[in-house]
Write a structure and sequence with these properties.
This protein is an all-alpha fold. It has one domain: Alpha Horseshoe (Serine Threonine Protein Phosphatase 5, Tetratricopeptide repeat). It is built from nine helices and no strands. α1 packs antiparallel against α3. The protein is globular, with a radius of gyration of 16 Å. 51% of the residues are buried.
Length: 210
């Protein structure tokens, strides 16, 4: 697979949905430690709605579909994480909405805009134990892999996101409910950072394993 077209985007959303569905309880457990415990439910609901929209959409431009899906997620799951993920899809989609196909370069641009918008919306940066800590390193390596195949690029992005998750576990939370735990948050896996790896995993499963 050299590029992603509209049908590929629909499949990627399904893969993200499947990953989140199968890990709903895990997200609930992670969020119950340092949050309000509903992360698994809100993310499952968000991507069920996103997939339903993607499946029926007649949109031809991948970026415009991503933007539309962000709007659906924002409406369906107006939680903190739902809003951040929705913003990422909307801004990421807008950054590539003039392309009918997505190659390694466009994928890098998408994720750069995705994570930048989350940083702006959440007023956070890498190192604060959030979803940014798994998406930012993925976006960085995608930018360095624009001359690679799609499979090669998303594979290194997946590895970077998983490494980011491991690193974030050792961090002290700085945002949201988790920040109340201060030093006690060190050593605990963050639910938001975990969601970030699931987003990358959805792309990986379609591009590499489909």
């Amino acid at each position: 697979m050299e590029t992603l077209r509209i049908k590929d985007i629909q499949s990627i959303i399904l893969q993200i949905k499947n990953v989140i569905d199968s890990n709903q309880n895990k997200l609930m457990e992670l969020d119950s430690v340092m949050g309000d415990g509903d992360l698994g439910f809100t993310m499952t609901k968000a991507f069920a709605a996103a997939y339903e929209e993607a499946d029926k959409s007649e949109e031809k431009i991948p970026g415009k579909l991503f933007t539309r899906l962000g709007m659906v997620i924002a409406k369906t799951s107006p939680s903190t994480m739902g809003t951040l993920v929705a913003t990422g899809f909307m801004k990421g989609g807008k950054s590539i909405d003039s392309f009918e196909e997505i190659g390694p370069l466009e994928l890098a641009v998408f994720f750069e805009a995705f994570v930048r918008s989350i940083m702006e919306r959440g007023k956070s940066v890498p190192g604060n134990k959030t979803i940014i800590d798994t998406l930012f390193p993925a976006a960085e390596v995608l930018r360095l892999s624009v001359n690679e195949s799609l499979a090669g690029a998303i594979s290194v992005a997946r590895e970077a996101s998983l490494n980011g998750l491991e690193a974030s576990t050792k961090m002290k939370a700085q945002h949201g409910r988790a920040a109340y735990y201060q030093d006690d948050s060190i050593g605990k896996q963050d639910g938001g950072a975990t969601v970030g790896t699931y987003l990358i995993e959805g792309f990986y499963r379609h591009i590499v394993q489909a």
